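Work Package 3 (structural annotation) set out to generate three-dimensional models for the target panel prioritized at the project kickoff. During this period the team completed the workflow that converts sequence records into C-alpha coordinates, so that structures can be stored uniformly alongside our sequence database. As a representative example, we reproduce one entry of 127 residues exactly as it appears in the project archive.
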Amino acid sequence: MARRARVFGLSGLLLVGACAAPPEPPRVDRPAPRAPTARATVPCVSLGSVAQAVVLDAAAVDFQMRDGRVLRNALGAACPALAESRTFTHAPEADRLCRGDAITVLTKPYGAGPSCVLGLFVATDAP
Protein backbone atom coordinates (compact mmCIF):
# COMPACT_ATOMS: atom_id res chain seq x y z
CA MET A 1 0.00 0.00 0.00
CA ALA A 2 2.82 2.39 0.76
CA ARG A 3 4.30 1.69 -2.62
CA ARG A 4 1.05 2.60 -4.35
CA ALA A 5 0.87 5.94 -2.57
CA ARG A 6 4.33 6.83 -3.72
CA VAL A 7 3.50 6.02 -7.33
CA PHE A 8 0.35 8.12 -7.09
CA GLY A 9 2.33 10.92 -5.52
CA LEU A 10 4.85 10.84 -8.36
CA SER A 11 2.09 10.81 -10.94
CA GLY A 12 0.64 13.95 -9.37
CA LEU A 13 4.00 15.69 -9.61
CA LEU A 14 4.37 14.73 -13.25
CA LEU A 15 0.93 16.11 -14.05
CA VAL A 16 1.73 19.39 -12.35
CA GLY A 17 4.93 19.61 -14.33
CA ALA A 18 3.05 18.95 -17.56
CA CYS A 19 0.66 21.86 -16.87
CA ALA A 20 3.42 24.40 -16.35
CA ALA A 21 3.99 26.97 -19.08
CA PRO A 22 6.23 25.79 -21.90
CA PRO A 23 9.67 27.33 -22.02
CA GLU A 24 9.85 30.65 -23.85
CA PRO A 25 11.04 30.44 -27.44
CA PRO A 26 14.41 32.02 -28.12
CA ARG A 27 14.12 35.79 -28.31
CA VAL A 28 14.54 37.31 -31.74
CA ASP A 29 16.01 40.78 -31.53
CA ARG A 30 14.10 43.22 -33.69
CA PRO A 31 15.58 46.51 -34.79
CA ALA A 32 14.39 49.46 -32.76
CA PRO A 33 11.85 51.71 -34.48
CA ARG A 34 13.53 54.42 -36.47
CA ALA A 35 13.68 57.77 -34.82
CA PRO A 36 12.42 60.63 -36.98
CA THR A 37 15.25 62.18 -38.89
CA ALA A 38 16.15 65.67 -37.92
CA ARG A 39 15.49 68.08 -40.73
CA ALA A 40 17.79 70.96 -41.45
CA THR A 41 16.35 74.32 -40.48
CA VAL A 42 17.55 77.73 -41.51
CA PRO A 43 16.44 81.07 -40.11
CA CYS A 44 16.82 82.97 -43.43
CA VAL A 45 16.92 82.46 -47.18
CA SER A 46 18.63 84.68 -49.71
CA LEU A 47 16.12 85.90 -52.28
CA GLY A 48 18.73 85.39 -55.00
CA SER A 49 18.73 81.67 -54.16
CA VAL A 50 14.95 81.27 -54.50
CA ALA A 51 13.70 79.96 -57.85
CA GLN A 52 10.04 80.27 -56.87
CA ALA A 53 7.68 80.29 -53.90
CA VAL A 54 4.60 78.08 -53.86
CA VAL A 55 1.81 78.81 -51.39
CA LEU A 56 0.56 75.45 -50.08
CA ASP A 57 -2.22 76.66 -47.81
CA ALA A 58 -2.96 79.24 -45.13
CA ALA A 59 -0.07 78.00 -42.98
CA ALA A 60 2.79 76.99 -45.28
CA VAL A 61 4.84 78.18 -48.25
CA ASP A 62 7.43 76.09 -50.11
CA PHE A 63 10.49 77.98 -51.31
CA GLN A 64 12.04 76.08 -54.20
CA MET A 65 15.71 76.90 -54.23
CA ARG A 66 17.92 77.18 -57.32
CA ASP A 67 20.09 74.32 -56.01
CA GLY A 68 17.09 71.94 -56.03
CA ARG A 69 16.30 72.01 -52.32
CA VAL A 70 12.82 72.83 -51.08
CA LEU A 71 12.54 74.80 -47.87
CA ARG A 72 9.10 74.82 -46.28
CA ASN A 73 8.10 77.76 -44.15
CA ALA A 74 5.42 77.10 -41.56
CA LEU A 75 3.99 80.55 -40.93
CA GLY A 76 3.88 81.90 -37.39
CA ALA A 77 0.06 81.84 -37.58
CA ALA A 78 -2.49 80.82 -40.18
CA CYS A 79 -3.01 83.43 -42.89
CA PRO A 80 -6.32 82.68 -44.67
CA ALA A 81 -5.92 85.54 -47.15
CA LEU A 82 -2.67 83.98 -48.37
CA ALA A 83 -4.40 80.66 -49.09
CA GLU A 84 -7.02 82.52 -51.09
CA SER A 85 -4.67 84.81 -53.02
CA ARG A 86 -1.68 82.46 -53.41
CA THR A 87 0.59 85.49 -54.03
CA PHE A 88 2.61 87.73 -51.75
CA THR A 89 5.32 90.34 -51.74
CA HIS A 90 8.02 91.39 -49.30
CA ALA A 91 9.85 94.57 -48.35
CA PRO A 92 11.56 95.85 -51.52
CA GLU A 93 14.86 96.56 -49.77
CA ALA A 94 15.12 93.03 -48.38
CA ASP A 95 17.68 90.74 -49.99
CA ARG A 96 16.62 87.85 -47.79
CA LEU A 97 13.59 86.55 -45.90
CA CYS A 98 13.98 85.51 -42.28
CA ARG A 99 11.95 83.99 -39.48
CA GLY A 100 9.80 86.75 -38.01
CA ASP A 101 9.72 88.81 -41.25
CA ALA A 102 6.35 89.86 -42.61
CA ILE A 103 5.19 89.08 -46.11
CA THR A 104 2.25 91.00 -47.58
CA VAL A 105 -0.57 89.17 -49.30
CA LEU A 106 -1.47 90.55 -52.73
CA THR A 107 -5.21 90.61 -53.24
CA LYS A 108 -7.10 91.26 -56.46
CA PRO A 109 -8.20 93.93 -57.33
CA TYR A 110 -7.06 95.87 -54.26
CA GLY A 111 -3.33 95.22 -54.16
CA ALA A 112 -1.72 94.96 -50.72
CA GLY A 113 -3.66 92.89 -48.21
CA PRO A 114 -2.86 91.58 -44.75
CA SER A 115 0.62 90.66 -43.60
CA CYS A 116 1.71 87.20 -42.49
CA VAL A 117 4.74 86.35 -40.33
CA LEU A 118 7.29 83.78 -41.49
CA GLY A 119 8.49 80.91 -39.32
CA LEU A 120 11.60 78.75 -39.67
CA PHE A 121 12.56 77.36 -43.06
CA VAL A 122 12.70 73.55 -42.88
CA ALA A 123 14.23 71.30 -45.55
CA THR A 124 11.74 68.86 -47.05
CA ASP A 125 12.12 65.63 -49.00
CA ALA A 126 10.33 67.17 -51.97
CA PRO A 127 12.45 67.61 -55.10
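The radius of gyration is 33 Å.
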